[in-house]
Amino acid sequence: KIIVIAIGGSIIFPDVIDWKFLLSFRKFLLPRLRNSRFILVAGGGYLARVYQEAAGKVVSPTDDDKDWLGIYATRSNAHLLRTIFRDVADPVVVD
Predict the structure, then answer these.
(1) Whole-angstrom Cα distance, residue 51 to residue 61?
(2) What CA–CA distance (Å, rounded) separates 60 from 72?
(3) CB 19 within 8 A of CB 54
(4) Using CA of residue 80, residue 82, residue 88, residue 91, what is the dihedral sign?
(5) Would you give the distance in Å from CA 72 to the centre of its chain?
(6) How many DSSP H helices and E strands does the chain contain?
(7) Could you list the pLDDT tens digit for every one of the 95 residues in the chain?
(8) Rounded CA gap, 8 and 19, in Å?
């Protein structure tokens, strides 16, 4: 059985990285790996907006630039999740 869980970036990083949530999430998910496989999908959330807003205070970023800042924030959040689940996760973050 495969279960897909979308984790919004604003849950991972509401204003700072919520390591307590991540710890609880890991403790919740690990025992369930015996019966199921999970695909975690991270969002960019707050981190993406921080980068986009910072760029906007210095220059007028293009929509393309803002998209890429969001994509890399999403990848950072995804890599954080992969790191937290390193012992059970695929070693590659799919992009």
Answers:
(1) 11
(2) 19
(3) no
(4) negative
(5) 10
(6) 4, 2
(7) 899 999 999 999 999 999 999 999 999 999 999 999 999 999 999 999 999 999 999 999 999 999 999 999 999 999 999 999 999 999 999 98
(8) 14
CB 42, CB 78: distance < 8 Å: yes
- The encoded tokens of residue 57 equal 């205070």
Q: What pLDDT sits at residue 95?
A: 82
pTM of the model: 0.91
Residue 73: strand, helix, or coil: helix
Place of tokens 């991540």: 22
Instruction: Report residue 59 as tokens.
Output: 């220059």
Name the packing angle between helices 19-29 and 63-84 (round to 10°). 50
Residue 39 amino acid letter: I
Q: Look up tokens 């293009």; give the residue.
A: 62
DSSP 34: G
Q: Which amino acid is located at 46 in the chain?
A: Y
